[in-house]
Amino acid sequence: MLMNKICSAGPSYETIAECRALHALGGDAVGMSTVPEVIVARHCGLRVLGISLITNKAVMNYNSQEKANHEEVLAGELQLILELGKPLHPNAWVCIPLPS
């Protein structure tokens, strides 16, 4: 069975040191803000369906010329939107009634 571990460190871009530490602890991906938002929504009594996507690769080397940047995240998001063919937007709240 494949088991993935997602670490929530946001909403912000993670530093190289954070990426290395989370990787050493067994993390497979870093989430920007899904977990804190779900915690608040559940506290308010809302049912939640979270959909997350990985949009950029972590920079793990201090000598790398690559940097985490918002343009890369938006490009990854746009690619997924085009593939899904759905009108998703990062600032849109999508309410889907879930069965009780």
Explain this structure.
The chain is mostly helical. It has helices at 16-24, 34-43, 70-84; strands at 6-8, 29-31. It has one domain (6-84). A two-stranded parallel ribbon has the order 1-2. The longest helix has 15 residues, at 70-84. The two termini are 29 Å apart.
List the SSEs and their pairings:
Elements: E1 6-8, H1 16-24, E2 29-31, H2 34-43, H3 70-84
Parallel strand pairs: 1-2
Q: Regarding quaternary structure, how should these chains be classified?
A: single chain
Shape: globular
> What strand order characterises the main sheet?
1-2
Structural class: mainly alpha
The count of DSSP E runs of length 2 or more, i.e. the number of strands, is: 2
Radius of gyration: 15 Å
Major sheet characteristics: 2 strands, parallel
Helix content: 25-40%
Query: Count of helices?
Result: 3
Number of domains: 1
Identify low-pLDDT runs: none
Mean pLDDT reading: 75
Percent strand equals 5-15%
Q: Span from first to last CA?
A: 29 Å
GO molecular function: purine-nucleoside phosphorylase activity
Enzyme class: transferase
Organism: Aquila chrysaetos chrysaetos
Protein name: purine-nucleoside phosphorylase
